[in-house]
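Summary for the lay section of the report: proteins are chains of building blocks that fold into shapes. Here we show the chain for ABC transporter substrate-binding protein and then a coded description of the shape we predicted for it.
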Amino acid sequence: MKKRITQGIQSRPLKHIAAVALLAASAAFTASGAQAWTLKEAAQPYSGTTIKAIFLDRPGYKAAQTLIPQFEKETGIKVRWEVIPYENTREKEVLNFVGGGDQDIVLVDVVWIGEFASNKWLVPIKKFTDDPKLADPSLNLQGFFPILLDSFGTWDKVTYGLPFDNYSGLMFYNKCMLKDAGFDAPPKTWDELLNTYAPKLTKGDKFAFALQSRRGETQSADSFMRVLWPNGGSLLDAKFKSNLMSPQSQAGLEYRQKLMKYMPPGIVDFDHAEAVNALAQGQVAMITEWSAFYPTLTDPSKSKIGNCLAITTEPRGAAGLKPALGGFSLAVNAKSNAKKQAASWLFIQWITSEAMAKPYLEAGGVPARTAVYKDAAVQDKYPFVKPMVESWQGGVPDYRPRFPEWPAVSEVIGEWGSKMMLGQVTVKEGAQTIGQKTEDILKKAGYYDGKKPLLK
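The coded shape description reads as follows.
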């Protein structure tokens, strides 16, 4: 038998044998190269470098803070961060870019990436992934949920950042309050919530629902846009003209007005913290909030809801399941020096890696990696996982427009959306004003004369 095998090999053309040997050597070299790459060795040239970031006062960032000492010990790179309110983040980062500040890691909201990328404030990740000294062979960009990598990290087909602290809108509810009102399950539709559940759950100082609606990005994204999509509406149509006067958009905005009588007084000044706290303290029975707030609602020092907490997808509307999509990516500041850029990339690559996904989740963060959520133990331990994954698979990529002009449009919606809720203008008057002002902004930017493409 051994003789036959030997004869078979000898009978093959020498050229073929050489090709096989070369292929084997190449595979061995690739394997050894992949094994040789380590974070510690990659970081050696940058040991002692300090990089700076902006963080928010949210669970995902606190989770990162608990893990950073591990990165610092491994690399010798120091990570420093400043915690500021979300509403101030974009302005602070823009001032940093324009004024030549010292921020190295850029926090990029889904609606900021167009502005940041168009102004060349971010470094395309290709600069780092093409560098074998900096690129972790196990990076696996395909391991991110596509909707997250595309929406939060990519602009005009160029990837600038890796998804970090990403959320889907979910319904968190107090199953004990629902049971006491005669319900053994949450509402499946927005119509059920308003017409069947809300009247029975609103009594005295207890309310059915809280929709975070504070003027600013919370009003524009978390309140105003949230009621458009489930009803089949949208801010703009395919030609970037206002779609707010469509029957579907009007239905969504009218729905929000009807729901207000089942929400706490002062709801127009509720930010995320107030909405989450209202559920946590038993003031309201239901909220639609970001999946990232699960750790807050399960923290006994902050929440009284205890075992009464339950989670499901956002309700369905006439257009089906169209949940809110939110979150960020981490990117490298193009204005930082080369050493800080490399150190920043190593941190971003590490904190968003598949290897760190479970530690980040266990520390209170929400990773964007698909693999970690396939773990049955993870699904059992974290009840928000299944509805969140379902929502990410069927979410709205352009839940908020990602063009660079969104911040200006958001200010308009923040002002007039609040007036609408307060009854200072009618829904039609508010929608007409927002639509006109939005079109003025887009006209000035060049979308209607061919200077800018309509879709990204």
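Put simply, here is one thing we learned. The domain at 39-167+326-393 is CATH 3.40.190.10 (D-Maltodextrin-Binding Protein; domain 2).
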